[in-house]
Each structure stands twice: as C-alpha cells, then as structure tokens.
Amino acid sequence: ISDGTKVGHDSPSKGFLPFSGTRLIQRRNRFHSLLINLVLKSHRVFLTSELGIDPSELPEDSSLRRWHPKFPLESAVACIVSSPLPIRPSDFEQKITSAKDAVKAFQARALFREADTCHQISLSKQQLSPIPSPKKSVAASPLKVSNVIDSTAYTASNLVGTQTDSKESNDKMITSTPNNLKGISLALLNKVRARENERRLLTELTYGKVSEARRAIYCRLPLIITQVWSILRPCNARPLPLSTVAVRVADSHPSGLSADAISEHLDVLLELAPCWIEKLNWSIVHLRLKDPGRSVKDVIDMIKLKVAKDGVNI
C-alpha cells in the first residue's frame, strides 16, 4: 500500500509508513499534480471537441500559462469519483502465515493509523477561525497554485482567472466592410476573422504573466541594443552618463519615445544582459560596455532566449 510518494514507496521494505513532514509535502505536491493533470486533460478535450482545433496545433501542456477564455472550468472538468476504502484489518480474523503476509498487514494497519491522524488534523483545522478567501487573480497560472489541500474550490477559481466577455465580442457579426475589402463576401470575412481570433487565443495560452507594457519593451530591445552599441563602442569601455545615452537613443529611435521612456528600456536591458552592459551608480549614473568585444548579434540572441521564457517572441 503506497500513496505514490517517494517516502511511501521506500517504506514498505521496513514494514511501516512514516508519517513525517517530508511525506506530507510529497503528498500535497502529488495531489496538486493530479488535480492539474485532470484539468489539463479536460482543457485539451474541450479545445479539440468543442472548438474543432486540430490536436497537432495545440501547444504542449507544460508550456500552458492560462486557460482558453471560453473554457468552462466549473462544468467541463469531470467530478472525481470516490474509490471505496479498504476494509480495516482485524487482528483476530487475519491469519499471518508468511513474512509477505506480515508486511502487508503492517502496511494496512499503518494506512488506517494515518487516516485517524489526518482525521484529527482535519477536526483541529475546523475549530480555527475561518480565513477570508482572497480575491481572484487575473489570468492566473495553471502551474503555480498554492494552498491546494485547504482550499480546493479557490484553486479552481484561481486557475481559470477572471474570464472576460470575449465570447460576445468574438461572436458579434461584422456589418461594415472597409473600402479595400469591398466585393468580398461578408460571411467569408467573418470566417477569416474568427479563425484569426482562435489562432491568437492559442498563442496567448502560452504567454506568461507579462504586462503589455513590458512586452512592448521586449519588442523594442533589438533595435535599442544596436543603438546602445553604436553609442558606447567608440568610448573604448569608458563610461558615459545614462542620461546622455538615453537622449541619443531617443533622438534616433523611430518610435519617437522620450528620453525617460528610453531610460526604462535601458533598465530592462541592464536586467537581461548584465554580462554585456553595466550601470555605475556614481553621483551621476553612468553606463559602459562590460564586454565590448561581444557582437551585437550574440547579445540580441541572448535577449531573445531570455524573453522567450516569459512567452514573448521578438
């Protein structure tokens, strides 16, 4: 008899299951993993059966960061069917004729001792004052949910996040057509736009919790890296005031951003590429290239790999 944990798997050779803190953590993590896998399976079935999406186009479950907005978490996930508990062993009825029977008897008795312990813990928790439930978080991650055992209902609501009214906006038919699309069937345009929305939603499923402002900064970094390199490279590793670098980048950047906005971009660049550029916190903050011999292409490739972990492709 084992509960799937490492401690539970190693213990039968000793004839008992130690009920330790390490095993409690392993049991909680296993329970959390089983819940997530159940929801992931229901989510994949919903995308393929209800929305008609080809399974080959779906992202891997490990890369998901949120559920599809149309996914009805409360109703789509099947209820967990309870399994019958084993019969409590009796010291008088059970006959032990071999060492194998003795080990099984020890394991069964340990299981029911743990059940009694869990019951006592549950009763002690019910006597505590209730903790107010926190607010639901927007676009919560399905792979990072806490307090699963004590608040299973809150976990389910946290997984789905705050669902928007995207269904109404996506189902709304387009009645006006731009001049450059005159002559094209309105039904065909609606079909194409619906397909584009589905592809966009599938792409957003793999996005992490990165704000749109941060995402925009990531997309501008490749050009800013080239500009910073052209400004600092002639200095031969000598530092240059950050304000000067920001003004020069702002003057030559096609987006028309201010120097203050460019300074925010430079802070993100310092965070992502500390091995290439560094900030000197003098009375006037300066910047300098930490590795002047490194090519711009290598720096941009390194930045792309780092931001890709947040689900942003630049």
Automatic annotation (TrEMBL):
Annotated DNA replication factor Cdt1 C-terminal domain residues: 188-278
Cell cycle keyword on record: yes
Keyword Iron-sulfur annotated: no
GO cellular component, one term: nucleus
UniProt keyword terms in alphabetical order: Cell cycle
Domain CDT1 Geminin-binding: 19-86
Annotated GO biological process: DNA replication checkpoint signaling; DNA replication preinitiation complex assembly; mitotic cell cycle; regulation of DNA-templated DNA replication initiation
InterPro entries: Cdt1 (IPR045173), Cdt1_C (IPR032054), Cdt1_C_WH_dom_sf (IPR038090), CDT1_Gemini-bd-like (IPR014939), WH_DNA-bd_sf (IPR036390)
Pfam name, any one: CDT1_C
Gene Ontology MF term list: DNA binding; DNA polymerase binding
Family recorded in the similarity comment: Belongs to the Cdt1 family.
Name of this protein: CDT1 domain-containing protein
